[in-house]
Amino acid sequence: VEMAGMINCMRFRPKTGQAEALFKAYAEYVRDYPFDDMLHEDFTKFPGHWANGKLHSVMVRGGHLGVSYNKTVISEEEAQSYSCFWKPEVKGKVGHFDWHLPNLGMMSIYKGNGSGLRDLDNKKWQAVQDVTMSLRSQVGGYFDYGGTFNSLKNGEMLAMCGIGDWITGVLEKDGAPVGSVIPKEGGIQWTESYCIGKGTDKVDIIKKFINYMLSPVGQVKSAQMAAYPGFCITKAGRAALIEADPKEAKRSHQMEGMPNDPIALINDGRIHYRDIPKQQTLEDWNDFWSEYKNA
User: Fold this and answer.
1) 145/171 Cα distance (integer angstroms)
2) Whole-angstrom Cα distance, residue 7 to residue 53?
């Protein structure tokens, strides 16, 4: 896939004689999409969305993964660390969203690997496996979206690893005593984006749809999505959410000055963007995940 003619020239100095052409290219991509209105500079050239100076995908929403928990059993203070998953009171009641990447990523963060959570040498990778295995006796199940949703709703599971507000937010708004926080060790960002298939004759209408998703109205609709809410990523979108639905803006911490403000968390270095293992293969991580589930 490719979006031709959109060249990012924000982060390098043009050579002599090239400045005019490069800044025209910059103006073109800003005109196509509101990159100049993004809430965070990282969103203007998000990892995995650009290649060789060309835009391949446009970010439209995102969310954070951390500690998801039942507030009647785990306090907000306890939820500030992944260590709450080992709490005796939730033995047999800790669930996993059944995907190895977010779960092992969280265990790596818990082991102190921070931004290098996926760049693990053999010693660090073994340490992640060991701490994950130490959680096994606490675990009561591995779930898809529906199972995760229902097990938290009916109290079958009292804590969940691998998810965030994109699931608990739906339950919380419906009155369930659950929530999600980014613990002190840090969390992971999921990012939802759109691209245009190369060779399509529908470029104009797809661009209109992407721009709708990035418009204030689209951003509010995204934040209020019944299936899984996400964060606004534009300044105008956040402002529109605060005006149209201040209750949801406050619930999801999308207000400047709130402790779990998603942008403040990024600035504090506590959010790590989703990626793949660097020194192991995806198969290595998946094989261990299967071993863990069958232990």
Assistant:
1) 13
2) 5
